[in-house]
Amino acid sequence: MEIGGQTESGANGGGGGGFRAARCWELLRWAAGVLRGKAVGLAGRLGRIARDEPRRVAHSVKVGLALTLVSVLYYVRPLFNSWGASTMWAVLTVVVVMEYTVGGTLCKGLNRASGTLVAGFIAVGAHKVAYMCGDKAEPVLLAIFVFLLSSAATFSRFIPEVKARYDYGVTIFILTFSLVAVSSYRVDELIRLAHRRFSTIAVGVATCLCTTIFVFPVWAGEGLHKLAIANLNKLAEFLEGIESECFRENATFENLEAKPFLQVYQSVLNSKATEDSLCNFAKWEPCHGKFKLRHPWSQYQKLGALCRECASSMEALSSYVVTLARTEYPEAHPELCSQQVRTACRQMSLHSAKALRELTAAMRTMTTVPSPASVHVSAAIKAAKGLRDGLSEGADLARAMHVAVIASLLSELVTKTKQITESVDVLARLARFRNPETTQTHKGVAIDVVS
Amino acid sequence: MEIGGQTESGANGGGGGGFRAARCWELLRWAAGVLRGKAVGLAGRLGRIARDEPRRVAHSVKVGLALTLVSVLYYVRPLFNSWGASTMWAVLTVVVVMEYTVGGTLCKGLNRASGTLVAGFIAVGAHKVAYMCGDKAEPVLLAIFVFLLSSAATFSRFIPEVKARYDYGVTIFILTFSLVAVSSYRVDELIRLAHRRFSTIAVGVATCLCTTIFVFPVWAGEGLHKLAIANLNKLAEFLEGIESECFRENATFENLEAKPFLQVYQSVLNSKATEDSLCNFAKWEPCHGKFKLRHPWSQYQKLGALCRECASSMEALSSYVVTLARTEYPEAHPELCSQQVRTACRQMSLHSAKALRELTAAMRTMTTVPSPASVHVSAAIKAAKGLRDGLSEGADLARAMHVAVIASLLSELVTKTKQITESVDVLARLARFRNPETTQTHKGVAIDVVS
């Protein structure tokens, strides 16, 4: 059709030109429409990101503010004249040091300042040693120094403690040492340059810290505390959902898979990375709000690990509940599916959920664990024990239940193995893994032909 | 004793001096011993890190090599004279761009180069606009540009796709734009500067790429492939351990907790962060070894998610097995603890483990999933189904088992809730959370006293 239009316009000059212009116009309008659609979509997405967490907008504005503040150093002539091109280092520092949380900015800022200072001293020393060895040896010696120190510093980054807290400082150490060591200045000039550079970096770090701390501060410690509360809340929500949808008198088990509470544990399972980085940054922060200087941040990691274990049990439980709802069992086993079991299950989930809610309330107000929490935990444990004791006059049924659980979990694992096999199969297909059987058959055919 | 010695030395000059010297000497020797001990410990640790992964040593040497290569630019006078102080940018680029994997280096290098290029063009444009508005308006206008663009770019980093792939590029964009926009040069000079800076950065990136690709390359894609194989192997190891220690004829259940196979799933559970970063870097890599250009890297993430689900079921299973081993049940339920159940469990774990081993072999040789794997999966599924059918002539026992599992998982959750309560309690004690009850009592006392 496109080609037809073109030949037509070739045969019939004026009218064809009008037709072509009309088509061009249409195309342009279509393109504009598509672009407008994309732009509206993107704007909607950006709006959602901003609404979800308004502090993100504040952070963006803060970065702009800090950069504008630092760039004033360029415009104010007296400052610029005394520091010269080194002012650039203040801008550079602001861009790379400014992080979302106060702890992150402090960690990077202090790492940058101390890395620069230490590397500067060592580099000046190396320069003096090389300078004394004469004109010929100087570059060779400096190259050897750079090679040895940067290799050693890079290797130190593989030590887990250094990686966790001083990774950026080591990078800056390598950077500063190489820059100072290889620049072919005389030593006295070098010291003046190093001093100037260090002071500009200090100005950059100070600008960042003032902006992050005094303009809508985002504290990593507070974030970690809130994450712990949110995780506990999600666990409680799951247990409440299970209680109301599965174990209450008139529970129907209907349409279970669509219920949001059955998915709520997933974000808890994936919270480890966020938690670790927040905990790492929180350790750098000064006291703020209700958090004192030596707040036990590592304890949050232990709590998080327990929450994730709990969530992983919930994952198993939810898959069972869904299967149970899907399978139509004609008749219940009189002993195990009695009112007694249902009541015990209800008690267990209800009291556990209530205990967790009490814990979140205590965490939120930062008060000691209230007695109701312990009461609920005891009630839940009592229900679990009662179920075990009541069901098994002898211990035989208890053991039977235990074995049943193991057998069921194993058959669950079998299903998972099947899914894994399918997934590897998809991978093999997508990546075009070689098929050993067809190659063999081909060989067989070849031999047949030859023979 | 210290003070006694000092007064003694005060009273009796010479002998006391000798005594003091001897103590100093002792102290020095003690300090040297401690330092030697620490140094030996550190050396041992570094040696272990190097032995665990010799490529780490290679990476450290590569960084040193790339830096030394780039610093040659300083020593070779003709090069230095034509580029001037901009040579510094090559050194800076090498330090920050050099990553452990080829994909990481490529990602950072391309991000850096494109970020610099785009920002450079926009900054020159902004400079021209500001220049036309006159001497007074120029700095104000430039400051506004810096503020707006850096805020917008920082906000774009919160979009997940940008964060995952172009985070570093956006940082470099902000950096370059601010640097170029605020530097008070004339436009023609600016273009020469930008050109020079871009070419030094390109030289830095090229040096990094040559070193990472041609000297002992570490491919993120290969790492991801090996991680998937290792995860599958660990799952198989767990199932084999369960089979041999719990379901075999003469299985004793003895000393189970100390067995390493019961902990093997934990590293699978925590593999998400490594997997995500490797997958992200692998997408940047060119074809290498057996991996073609558009290898389906995302499929590894799906496989990894399944492996983690599997590992989380294993966590539940292992806690059950350990409890079962610890509890002394006097007698087994005749129906559930029979030889039949044990055999079925053995079949399920054995065949699943074998299927997983087949899968790892297929992944290692990059061949399609072999038929034995499917055969083993079918055998495992048959065993699971046989157990279910065989146990329940009617479906009542099957349902009973199902309910038993749910009740047991719930009572497991109760135990976890108890642990969480204890953990929060520890946190409250360590962080000195305020106790609402004592404050109330104090108030009560105060009122009593007042009244």
UniProtKB/TrEMBL annotation, chains A, B:
Transmembrane segments: 57-76, 82-102, 140-160, 166-186, 198-220
Compartments it resides in: Membrane
UniProt cross-references to InterPro entries, sorted A to Z: ALMT
Main location: membrane
A Pfam family this chain is assigned to: ALMT
GO cellular component: plant-type vacuole membrane
PANTHER family: ALUMINUM-ACTIVATED MALATE TRANSPORTER 10
Family: Belongs to the aromatic acid exporter (TC 2.A.85) family.
Protein name in UniProt: Aluminum-activated malate transporter 1
